[in-house]
Amino acid sequence: MNKASRFTQLLMLASALLAILIPRICAQQEIGFIEDFALAADREEALQQLIPGTEDYYYYHALHYQYTGQDRQLAETLTQWKKR
Fold it and tell me: Which ranges of 1-84 does DSSP label H, i.e. alpha helix?
């Protein structure tokens, strides 16, 4: 087997491993915040991890405001979210 075909095989193997591992790593990060939010004693502290203006920011803030009965903040968040 020449060096070029061996390199090609190693490259294909590395690509296959990355294709398998990357979605798992991304999924773990997403579930990580969901767990932080769901299990947090202080959810407002967990919400500080989110980047303002993102879908997750608006979604989890709205969820928190709805759950805690903060109707005015919920309405403001939904209005801002619609503008985006």
Answer: 3-39, 43-47, 55-68, 71-83
